[in-house]
Queue: 2 jobs
Job 1
Amino acid sequence: MPPFTVLHVCMGNICRSPMAERLLALAVRERLARSGAGVDPETLLHSHSAGTGGWHAGEQMNPPAARQVHARGGRTEGFAARKLLSEHIDGADLVLTATADQQEYVAALRPDATARTFVLGEFGRLLPGVDLAALPPAAPTPAAVYARGVALVEAVDESRRLVPPLPGDDLDDPWGRGDQCFSRVADEIEETVHPLATVLLP
């Protein structure tokens, strides 16, 4: 059973999507630690990222983005920016983009992924409306997290058909704008990835 796979997408893959990648992984790791399950988080959920442009391919995370991840207890080692490829989308159970423009880019590249591709803020906004009791039961096993995650994505996709997207769902691009802006964007990312981890691993 593959881990439930979340792909984060932004423009250059050095600021927003790397923070989302590592902060989601951190949220899952922290929930598992509190539960005492003793399970390797990577067997349950794989969080990775890519950018719609390849200008920064091979580069490390932008320093202020890395500072935000470190300050919140996350890890940045092993990260290298990369350009989004069709195979990244094909292997993802959930695609979270920084903006609506990037969501449209993913949908144009892989139309069959439209139902599992969301702006990150949109996904976080719709998540509280999901009937969690209707999802498969939660447990710290690969099969349970995968089944619950796939059902969750389907439920959020169904609910967004009744709710229009909002401009405020987009994450601002913090590149070149200093630590205060990066901190605000990281806060907004956590507003989605923490509830997501909570639903997957109650």
Job 2
Amino acid sequence: MRFGYSSNLIATTTLLLSSLGLLAGCGDDTGATADKGDAQVFVEPEETIPGGLAAGTGEEDVQDGWAVTYDRFLVSIGNFRAARSDATETLAEPETYVLDLLHAPAGGYVIKTFEDVSAVRWDRFGFDLPNATASAKTLAPTTAEDAKLLADGGWSVYFEGKIEKEGVVKTFKWGLPAGTSFDDCANEDGTPGFAVPSGGSAQVKPTIHGDHWFFNNVTAGAEVTKRYAQYIADADADADGETTIDELKALKAADAFPAAQYNLAGGLTPIETAYDYVLAQARTLGDFQGDGECPTRKILP
């Protein structure tokens, strides 16, 4: 026996199911999923910032005998963002912060927890290290004085420290207007972004490194490099024990970085002086989940 249905009944049923979101293909047009979890964004320093760098022959040692210690290390960071290549939904935290990375809390600075987000892989993540302005916020133990220092200088990073070798000490206090955006962040194994577990929480960790101005190349992927610090000592033209920004600007890159040791291609700006080299390396500081990379970089005003 065949059962027939009137066209009016079919139309009415279709309208009802559609309004309830029960028809195949219906749902949130952003691509959001029913399974939810949280994503917590926090900023952490690489160990080279609180721990310094040792002189030696190890893979992460300074190869030319100089040991490095930091006495202060501030960054401007913010505009955290995430998206999915398979959907249109996005996450965003537009605030900018000045953070004291030398005295960061155990586990880093918690910036934002995105709650009840789709439990999928968010394969596009990025953030900025902008040149600081007076509107930047702070998180303890970062002080208002720290924020003012960066804002007054228009810097994205400021650090103080010293290199030591066989009783010789050279100090430095460098502020750099190296505002840069970092995108397409991936884990160390190359997996892009982060995965939010259903009913759980993903840890999303922009990581700031403290050794890039010792690299013998400008990295854009895995940090396959050696570390040298001799150029800092060589730049101290007046031999007063402090290497200044002006002295870095006066030292030609060809004299500071021998071609047999360095490959300076790949910077976002030309490298003609030692200062240009430090600035170029500051534009690579933003890493992800420890040693993962954010290879898409653009200069910010």
